[in-house]
Amino acid sequence: MCGIVGYVGPRPSQDILLAGLARLEYRGYDSAGIAVIDEAGSLNMRKKAGKLQMLRDSLADAALADGSTGIGHTRWATHGGPTDANAHPHLADDDKLALIHNGIIENFAALRAELEAEGVTFRSETDTEVAAALVGREYRRTGDLKEAFRAVVNRLEGAFTLLAVHQDEPGLVVAARRNSPLVIGLGDGENFLGSDVAAFVEHTRRALAIGQDQIVAITPSEVTVTDFAGAAVTPEPFDVSWDATSAEKGGWPSFMAKEVAEEPDAVANTIRGRVRDGAVVIPELDGSDDLFRGVDRIIITACGTASYAGMVGKYALEQWARVPVDVELAHEFRYRDPVIGENTLVVSISQSGETMDTLMAVKYARERGARTLSICNTQGATIPRESDAVVYTHAGPEVAVASTKAFVAQITALLLLGLHAGRVRGTLSAADGAAAVAELDALPAKIAEVLAEEQAHVTQLAGWMADTRSVLFLGRHVGYPIALEGALKLKEISYIHAEGFAAGELKHGPIALIEPGQPVFVLVPSPRHSALLHAKVVSNIQEIRARGARVIVIAEEGDAAVLPFADEVIRIPLAGALFEPLLAVVPLQIFAMALATAKGLDVDQPRNLAKSVTVE
Q1: Sheet holding 223-227, edge to edge
Q2: How buried is 66 (Cβ within 10 angstroms: 0-12 exposed, 13-18 middle, 19+ buried)?
């Protein structure tokens, strides 16, 4: 979850480190710090609990001697609370070495006891300071930071990205990764490290992906990568497909508001280049037809919002590819000894491509012979590299912690995947495929229409409900996962109770929650697709309305049957049944954002949450 930046080059490092950390604030953190080697060759460090601005203010009050080599960190507390002492960097080797760390070192207690027995005194409660002390001890033995790293990382258990500098080796940053993100940025006469390309995209869009259990050393003119045993590795290069301005607010009141407004583009960009002659053909899957032809079961694994996208994808894959699909929470999947094998396709979904629970589920699936495919929004991420194939979404950087445009891009990618698989398996006719492609092509304009026509209405509705303490969401068919997502968005950023239910479950228990004035959002399926399903949902509305609920209906244009039973109606354009979720979710995202704003809350950085969850 932490943000990590490293820099070596001709420019003063403090500005680069602080700007990089600012671009990584979306990851969630509770303290920040930097360490630099100044022009005189001395190591200087400053760290503060709280937001990055606290560190900036401290540096403004008492300047830190600057230099051209440095590392920076934003910490999410795990071992020890969010204090100045527990913040990173941590020092060792008589304060000549500074080290930062993302992840959790699981055997830190035994290692700490070993060091304490040697007389080492610790200044923090963290597992990170243990790693710093170990590297410092090895440096005193070897006099070589890369060799010291290699000796230490092979003793660590758990997930970690480590970066370190030593004042005796200016112009060098050494890093190592295991089960935690790290990428290299390639500049001209300068090089960068970051837990995300956002850390350095302002300066370069040329990057290298670092693999599992690898050590990297950067100088202004050279990048070397080895595995933990010391063997040379050639990292995978890629170009970042967006620029720094894409990760800036650009006048919007919040990143979330900006990202909701970008949803039409996110959907259009995910579709672009994947339709040929009226059929979906995904170039990344060229030559991978066996992924689909031989499977007798698909498992979609993900966490949180991504799992709800997977639930929508289940309907599409089963309808078009005619293969049974299960949706599994990644953190439950590998712990229940699931029945999988060579005829199982495991599809993982992760915006960051670093979600630890999902990564471990992918590794588990591969170990048992399953085929794996990832849906991801981040180039150079770990999960795509661990998978047999990848379909990238092209939502651009998503900075707000609560996912919006990445969610609609994930659903779009799953729809594309379903159409691609249906074509490859011969279960989807050319006519049906062409009709679905027409629906896909129309989605960006329809999402834009929802934003234009309903944003003010939904924002006003949220303002009226600012003191609401509980909201329920009901849906059926593809509306059910959207009900779950609507509830999750509200919980994430407004901190009030919200629950989503399959509408048919109402009478089996949840109706006990209905009392006079209880707000309930109901996603009504189109009567054009299923008159029976529409009638069932209208019946559900009557049940809760009879018990005093305040009913807010999301229904397609022209659906007059809901009017007698709704307190508020939010309209969405006509669309095919499997495409309605991309339209229906937009008002729910706007509602959550507007309600949180009305309550005076930070919609971009909700409490206790981080954008990229890189620990289990």
Answers
A1: 90-92, 97-105, 158-166, 173-178, 214-218, 223-227
A2: middle
CA distance 294 to 307: 24
Residue 159, strand partner residues: 104
- What's the CA gap between 266 and 244, in Å, rounded? 17
Q: How many CB atoms lie within 10 A of CB 381?
A: 26
For tokens 């290299």, the residue is 184
Rounded distance, CA 137 to CA 127, Å?
A: 16
CA atoms of 413 and 375, how far apart (whole Å): 7
* CA pair distance 114, 118, nearest whole angstrom: 7
Residue 446 has φ and ψ, to the nearest 5°, of: -70, -40
State the catalytic residues.
2, 611
Contact 74, 2 (CB under 8 A): yes
- How far is residue 306's CA from residue 303's CA, in Å, rounded to a whole number? 6
Give, in order, the Cα–Cα distances in Å from 48 to each of 82, 102, 253, 410.
9, 17, 27, 37
Tell me phi and psi for residue 374, to 5 degrees.
-115, 150
Q: Which DSSP category does 11 fall into?
A: S
Please, are residues 93 and 131 in contact by the beta-carbon 8 Å criterion? no
Q: How many CB atoms lie within 10 A of CB 61?
A: 7
- Enumerate the β-bridge partners of residue 299: 326, 346
Give yes or no for residue 247 having a pLDDT over 70. Answer: no
Which domains occur in the chain, in start order? 3-246 (3.60.20.10), 249-428 (3.40.50.10490), 447-607 (3.40.50.10490)
The letter for the amino acid at 138 is E
For residue 510, give the nearest of 490, 540, 486, 537 by alpha carbon. 540
Task: Convert the pLDDT of each residue in 22-56 to its tens digit.
Answer: 888 877 788 999 999 999 999 999 999 999 999 99
- The average pLDDT across 155-160 equals 90
Handedness of CA 205, 211, 212, 215 (dihedral sign): negative
8 A C-beta contact, residue 520 and residue 472: yes
* 447's tokens: 């999402």
The angle subtended at Cα 393 by Cα 360 and Cα 314, nearest 5°, is: 65
Give per-residue pLDDT as tens, 192-245.
999 888 889 889 999 998 888 999 999 999 999 999 999 999 988 888 876 666
Q: Residue for token digits 């495409």?
A: 579
What pTM value is reported for the model?
A: 0.83
Residue 74 DSSP SS3 = strand
CB 7 within 8 Å of CB 190: yes
CA distance 465 to 468: 5
Helix (H) or strand (E) holding 375: strand 371-376
What is the C-alpha separation between 163 and 150, in angstroms, rounded?
A: 12
